[in-house]
């Protein structure tokens, strides 16, 4: 409608702003009210917003300000939906399946976020924007029907908070000080700067480095999606999710990003993007699962609200940053920066948590984490 990349970025910012402002309080809603009912309400609200956009587009009445208003409304709904959806996974399964279920749920969501835009692009070409928006609105019938079909007695609800009062602040701060919560949050924030913005650098590689167009861009993003699918399946089948494993995956992903900056041909870049897709999914699902399993069930909504706040806030900051680097120094430097920043963060984590071999009495020992 505008042919203005800044306007597109502004719509994204409008969607992110509510979470940046109210992310924690969105998690409080999921801790106070039954999460199934909360999700049912958010899915209905998202369906209505999608339907409004579809009708406006099909009738030719859509205006730029409509898109901004609908984007802002979607952002407000997401404030409540994201943490409640993450926390609801724990209520759906028994304690012996939480680890696999959280990984599977996170994998499905992240994979959809990667594959969805590509599928939508083909759909727009095939049936048009208005029809694509209509199908998007209709797709909300699936989660609404599933939520309605659930038997609340089969769920595993946790003790609910009666109110969101100030005395909840201290427990949350205590939870955040736990290594099992804080370290995954730090890792998620450092990689969140660049992981959601990988398509930006791939686009720069396609157009500037290889002087190609949408065909190569689609192929490269498809390679990332295939790697993400493999990473999702592997993550969902795993039983272990320790901090050491998460740290190793994060270190490999940082190295993988750095290696992309050294590749000079489309074939080499495609080969390098596959393991990056695998490791991206392992890191994302690993951080989410670790936080979910480490936070007390009665506070899980608020903790996941903070996780979403960290991830989304870093992505909002990283988008302009990596776009600026790609524009000034090129896509290869963009890949290097995307690997170097998390690598420095991981190095800092390793230094702070290194074993302390000298105890006060002169004997060797380890500092307990």
From TrEMBL:
It is a multi-pass membrane protein. Keywords: Cell membrane, Membrane, Transmembrane, Transmembrane helix, Transport. It is found in: Cell membrane. The lineage of its organism: Bacteria, Bacillati, Actinomycetota, Actinomycetes, Propionibacteriales. Pfam families: MFS_3. The chain crosses the membrane at residues 6-25, 37-58, 64-80, 101-124, 130-150, 181-204, 216-234, 246-263, 269-291, 303-325, 331-352. It comes from Kribbella aluminosa. Residues 1-155 form the Major facilitator superfamily (MFS) profile domain. InterPro entries: MFS_dom, MFS_trans_sf, TM_effector. PANTHER family: INTEGRAL MEMBRANE EFFLUX PROTEIN-RELATED, STAPHYLOFERRIN A TRANSPORTER. It comes from the Bacteria. This is MFS family permease.
